[in-house]
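Re: that backbone. Tokens:
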């Protein structure tokens, strides 16, 4: 699978708002993850955000609360954003590659991501960000290139077919396991903030 974001494989163009999309996704059972999770975690944030953050999938806290990035990794993400002058609900919209929790927090399988990605593609189209941060290997590999390694790709801008600037970086959960990744993520988010300021004047 090779792609640089945006290859919708089923037509969601008739879904014209995030609210309508969320309603559709809430009833989704396109893959087997839905049977093992508590609820679908659609995503949240500013629906007009110029900056979108995309992670891997809901964990236990997210599954329980129905919100993305609310556990320890989410709290760290909030701190990283604050350190560069950004706030999640004001400046960003946050979503994941898959919207149902994989069992035991394993990475999503290709067949699960393939079923879920059309929802994310439409979410991206409706939000229309200028910048996307891909957090972790799953987001990079499912949205950009299945062979890509996050260690080699992080910190370098990519551009989607529709002109969105894309910054791959480590997932915040990786920083909790390995503190040496904090500095590179800090550098990546400084670049993101600079691009965000250029785009928005904020
Ligand atoms: S992970 Fe995505 S495709 Fe699978 S059931 Fe949940 S919403 Fe549907």
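Recovered sequence:
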């Amino acid at each position: 699978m090779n792609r640089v974001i945006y290859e919708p494989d089923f037509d969601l163009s008739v879904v014209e708002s995030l609210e309508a999309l969320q309603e559709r996704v809430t009833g989704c059972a396109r893959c087997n993850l839905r049977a093992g999770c508590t609820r679908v975690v659609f995503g949240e944030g500013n629906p007009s955000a110029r900056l979108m953050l995309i992670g891997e999938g809901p964990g236990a806290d997210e599954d329980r609360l129905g919100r993305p990035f609310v556990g320890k990794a989410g709290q760290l993400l909030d701190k990283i954003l604050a350190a560069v002058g950004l706030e999640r609900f004001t400046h960003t919209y946050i979503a994941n590659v898959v919207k149902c929790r994989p069992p035991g927090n394993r990475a999503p399988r290709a067949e699960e991501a393939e079923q879920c990605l059309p929802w994310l593609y439409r979410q991206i189209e409706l939000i229309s960000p200028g910048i996307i941060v891909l957090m972790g290997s799953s987001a990079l590999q499912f949205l950009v290139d299945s062979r890509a390694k996050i260690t080699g790709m992080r910190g370098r801008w990519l551009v989607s077919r529709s002109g969105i600037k894309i910054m791959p970086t480590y997932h915040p959960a990786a920083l909790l396991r390995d503190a040496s990744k904090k500095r590179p993520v800090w550098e990546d988010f400084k670049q993101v903030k600079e691009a965000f300021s250029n785009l928005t004047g904020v």
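Residues 25, 28-31, 33-34, 40, 98-100, 112, 115-116 surround iron/sulfur cluster (CB under 6 Å). The chain has one domain: 18-200.
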